[in-house]
Design brief:
With 164 residues, the protein is mainly alpha-helical. It has 6 helices and no strands. This is Succinate dehydrogenase assembly factor 3.
């Protein structure tokens, strides 16, 4: 079960389960300092609010909620650490991109800012793909389909899900 104290027992390096070509050393190092689940959950939403456009924010917020609900009852400490470290690495990536796009540490893009860029993601490492279970591959495929339905880069005005 995900608990507040679950993150404090971790002292080794986190498993590499984030979809990226090669996470930077800064992101990997930062992921080693895990956050308690509730704090991580809140910071993910804050990062989505500050760094994603409305379409991707809607998709990302729903995905975060679903994943945290699915993993609420996990008791295995290794799974808890893997889950928390993966989400922490994603959070660190979002925060670093927000810093890069805003031009500094102290400034963050405003909600209506035209400077806000969309989180573009990264290709999944082929070695990582081979390690995924059938259920994880299916979930990844569903996520890919959902993102294609929500976000079309060719449209100037993509609409949030459920609105036509």
């Amino acid at each position: 079960m995900l608990r507040r104290g679950a993150a404090t027992a971790f002292s080794g390096s986190p498993p590499s389960s984030v979809a990226s070509d090669a996470p930077s050393a800064a992101v990997s190092t930062a992921a080693q300092s895990l956050l308690p689940p509730i704090q991580l959950y809140r910071r993910l939403f804050r990062a989505h609010r500050q760094g994603l456009n409305p379409e991707m924010r809607s998709l990302g917020d729903n995905y975060v909620k679903d994943e945290f609900r699915r993993h609420r009852a996990i008791d295995n400490p290794l799974q808890i650490v893997g889950f928390l470290s993966s989400w922490k690495m994603y959070l660190d990536t979002l925060e670093l991109e927000a810093i890069d796009s805003s031009g500094g540490v102290g400034s963050s893009p405003s909600v209506g800012s035209a400077k806000r860029k969309c989180f573009e993601g990264r290709r999944l490492d082929p070695d990582m793909m081979e390690k995924l279970s059938e259920e994880q591959l299916y979930q990844l495929h569903e996520l890919m389909q959902a993102t294609q339905e929500v976000y079309d880069p060719n449209k100037a005005q993509a609409k949030p899900p459920g609105k036509k």
